[in-house]
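Appendix B, example 12.
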Amino acid sequence: MPSVREIAQYAGVSTSTVSLALNNKQGVSEVTRRRVLEALYELQGREAARPGTSSHLADTKRSEAKKTDTGTQISSVVVLHPAILRSSQVFSELLQGIQAAAIRYHIQLNLAVNEENLPQSHVTRLYLSDEALRPDGVLVIGARMHEPLVEEMRKLGLPVVLLGRQAPDAQISAVGRDEIGITIEAMNSLFELGHRAIALVGGDLSYSYTHARLHGYREALAEQGITAPERWIALGPGDAAAQTILENSPEITAVLCINDAYAMQALPVFQNAGRKIPEDLSVISFDNTTLAQTFDPPLTSISYPRFQEGFWALKMLVEQAQQPLMLSSQITSRSTLIKRASCAPPIRKVTF
């Protein structure tokens, strides 16, 4: 493991910046954080490739293990991604982490769209039906409740890791987040400011994170003794959801947007209706993309270590293939609430 000083020198930053970045603390930009992590993984890769090191010897032993059929050496991985990307930044940061791990483990990556009803001639189908093209493992980016290709891949004996969500059962490996816990933390920050009438805006129930954040939203309200009327919850496209809240729940003083992409649709609707942020309406979102950081005012948003999640997912896939006794593995990443200027105490009291 490279030292903090070595990482700092390689990345061209201070040792304190390295410490903040590696511990996912505030005070470091996402660009700098990624630079530090890339330096870490690059230095780890150099150590692993150096003859005589323990990592190099471990790699040699793994190659020998392949010959004795005690595990499988992964050389190619298909990364299945949604056909429609709501946030190119989210996808890019996950993919950067995956690519860093691919370089570290000398793995060829192939991207393919993740859709159920594709023709047999589509490249995604060919990866599964043509043995000559079949990969050694599969990463699935996305958080849909139903992933039809996962069971098909498992039947083929391919190791599979879900990225961006918790696994639906204990037999599937995944790198996910504590969505419920971080949602409760976000809600509590609004309660501390004095908000009681809080809406949940945007979202699609075909995605697991929508269910988890909705669960956390309701649980947080219940802990405060507040029973949220259903009209405080408006799913669907952000602009339509915002309009629904304006029409049905004018008492709302704060909103929790399901993510930054939906927030960018919803917030202009609130602003055009005369709701100033944060004077009339406090806002918290999820994903902490540049959309949230550069909005006027900058949005309080929940940050996920996406680069690390991508790296961990591919590393997990490699280890699962190499360890025949490992059925599955789960990683839950740590999320961070980044507070900015979009939240303030309510200017009016709400009673209900």
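The longest strand covers residues 76-81. Confidence is low (pLDDT under 50) at residues 53-70.
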